[in-house]
Each structure stands twice: as C-alpha cells, then as structure tokens.
Amino acid sequence: MIDSIPVKIYDTTLRDGSQAEDISFSVEDKVRIAQKLDELGIHYIEGGWPGSNPKDLQFFQEIKSVSLSLAKIVAFGSTCRAGILPKNDPNIRALIEAGTKVVTIVGKSWDIHPLEALKITLDQNLEIIYSSIQFLKGCVEEVLFDAEHFFDGFKNNPQYSLSTLKAAQEAKADWIVLCDTNGGTFPGEIQSIVQEVKNNIAVPLGIHVHNDTEMAVANTILAVKEGVRMVHGTINGYGERCGNANLCSVIPNLKLKMEIDCVTDDQLKKITEVSRFVSELANLPHNKYLPYVGESAFAHKGGVHVSAIRKKDATYEHISPERVGNHRRVLISDLSGESNVLYKAGEFKIDLESKDPKVRKILDDLKHLESEGFQFEGAEGSFEILIKKALGQHKRFFELMGFRVIVEKKTEEEALSEATIMVRVGDQVEHTAAVGNGPVNALDNALRKALEKFYPELKEVNLLDYKVRILSTKDGTRAQTRVLIESWDGKSKWGTVGVSENIIQASWQALVDSIDYKLLKEENGK
After folding, report:
1. 1, pLDDT greater than 50
2. Which domains does the chain have, with CATH numbers?
C-alpha cells in the first residue's frame, strides 16, 4: 500500500462519457447508471453540465428523489465569462440551480486558450478562475477546479500554468484536478509534472486524462503513485475522441495491484456487472477484450494454458476472476488439447475421465470440424451437443422429414419468404408452413411452429444474433459459409454453429443445435 490516505473515485460517464461518438443517454438512463455507480462505491458522480442543455438540468432534478448510499452528485460547468460577475453569469447560476452540494468548474490553464480561444488577457483568465471559485464556495459545500489542458500548458509555459492553480488555491478550491485534455502526455511527463505541482500547491490533487495515446490508465496510476488522491474516469473508458481513463481498469489496479482501498471487496465484485450494464444502456456491444471485465479477460484457448490452469490458476491468471465479478472461460478450437475438452465437460457437468478414449475421439472430431470451417469458440451449445453425441448421451427430440424454402419477389414489393417443413416427434408427424422476412427467418418460424405444440418451452427462445462468415473467398457465391447463432431464453445465452456451401443448410444446422440445446437444458433442469 502506498500510504493510508484514501483515493477518491470520480466518475464522469454521464458527462464526458456521453460525449463519445454513438452514445446518447436519456435522463432515465443517467439515473439508472448513477444508482449502479453508487453500488460500485464511486465517491463522486458527475451528472452533466446544467448550463448546456435541458436534459442535464432535468437529471439533477430527478436524482434528488433517488436515495444514494455513498456517492455525491456533481454539477459541472465553466468559469464565468470575462467582464461578468459570477453571480450574473448564466452558467454559474445554472450550477447553483442544479442543487448539488459539489460543483466542478473547468478553467483554462494553457496560455494559448485565453489568448487565442477566449481573446482575453492572461491576468483576466486568472481573475475569472479566482472569482468563480470564490463565489461558488459561498454557495455549495465543495468546489473542484478542473485545470483544462494543464499538462500541455505546463510544457509550454510552466509558470503561467502553475499560476492558474495558485489562483484556484487562493480562492479555497477543495480539489485541483490536473487535466490531460488532449490525451497526448506520456507517463514520465505526468510523473515529473505532478512532482513539480506538489512542490507548489497544497490543495489535494486529482487527475483527469484522455486516452489519445492509449496511456490514460497508465497516466492515472502513475499520478496516484506521485501522490494524487482523486482519479477521474469513465466506465469502459467512454469519452470524447479516443475516450477517458477506463475506471474498470483503474479501480481494480488501485485495489488489487496497489492495495489502495478505494472500494470494498464486495463493491469490486460488481464492476463487471456495472461495465456491461453501462454498455447496454449506451446501446453498444460490450468490448470482450477489456481487461478485468471483458468476456475474454479470463478466457483460455491454448491446450498448454488450460492444462496449467487446471492445476493452478495463477499459472495463466494474474488475479482470480471472481474478485472482479468475472469468470474463467475455456475456449474450444483447433488449438485445444485434452485439457480443454475435460474442462468443458466439467463445466457442462458431464462425467468424463482423462483416460477415457472418447476424449481423444471428441478432440479429433473437433479438430476435423474446425478444419472444415466450424468454430466452437462462440458456439458452446454446439460443442456440448458434440460431446453428448460422442458419449451416446444425446437425445433426439425430433426428426426432419424435409423442408422447402421459397423466396418470391414481385415488381417493387419486398421479397417474401415462405418455409414449409415436415418433422416427426415420436410417432406423430407435423407438417406446417410459416413466412418470414428472409429465408432463414421463415425456416426458423416454421420449425418453431411445428415443434412448439410438443415443446412449449421453445416459446421462451429468442434469436439474439445471427452472423454469416464467408470462409472461402475465391469461390464466389459457392463459398463455404459459417453461420453463428446466439439464442436467449430469459435466463441464459448460448451459441450454435453450422457450416455448408448452402447458407440455408448452414443456418439449419445452427437452428437445430439451438433448439436441441434448449430442450437438453430443460430436461436436465439447467
């Protein structure tokens, strides 16, 4: 542990994070995210800029009726304009009207900004920093000063950049936050500049960095090593341009690697859930490769790796995934060894011994299928069925007697797809048809229609994702095609795969595996 002084976590997902391309949170989204951040143990939640848009102002009104256990809600704004008293400045008034106990204001600390962007003198810039903070200190309990572009400013004119911090200090700011707004500062520069600031400023320091050189997390951690005691960031690193420091990496690094108790052990276990929750509300796919919280963060593919972790987790895992609410995954591919098969069998609760000759057969079948284009990394449902077929444990729930798919296009109308199917369940034959917005959708509808009278639980299944991959690019429309399907029944997700030169046949394989997997789950009480 660096020392006993706690590090405060300041989240700006609702403000800086929402400035990312493709993200737009509703007021309801922001309230729900704030509640999740509070559960995670975040100390400060920046709710937005009430002077910039009505939606942020509405958030500050609605969050007042929400009970938070720890987090302080923060309103964000800028210093007053030159020549206008803070009490008369609309942006400053909006900060007060937001009704928060904590306010963050941003001011210019790089000399080119007042001179070139604001067209004011350097002394005028110091005056608006001082007067804005002093006025707000008389209105709210806590004021933070974000020194915008501080590191670029320091490299250009260190004396002036420090003078902006001194103005904030003299005005009694509670925190001074050093910002790498352009995200171009290197870790060594961060360290040396923070050291110099500490020699001149007594106010507690924060760090707010962007990720334009992929160093935001490293810069944040090194700033803490130099004595900074507040870290700013966003969930999943969302933010302007390349994003902000990712709190889903920063928090575990502080807690697990630096032994700084910024959150409790129980709160840390929620970080994967919060990461995925925010992705959902942002309407973005969750980045599976994120450290700590990504789906692939503790995924093992190579047979040597799997063999080792079966003996001792630490051989290929730097922490236990459960500490951050994640879990280990073993992937199945042509790189797999017998350990992969045994691990997955255990995960599926299938009794399989390492000396069983069927292990080698399963592995050989797997590698043969992968050589033909099958991929089981995202299709664990199909792999479980493969194992059960090899062990003679697979039940045949229905038999296909035949299907036909017709696609009809008339003049300017949309193409219409219709599928007719005949299946046998036990000694009964079901012959039915259905339409869809494409041949695969029509086939899926027809198959469900035929089977749901026998297996009503199939009504719970929804197709979440359908991916088509062309495997042999030189063969044109005759190319080998892989279809991956992800299904969901309200309780769990599973993936299935099919491969054929005929996309309908590949889709059929994946659809049948999806239905088989659901019925196997129900039969085994999963």
Report:
1. no
2. 8-281 (3.20.20.70), 299-371 (no CATH), 399-524 (3.30.160.270)
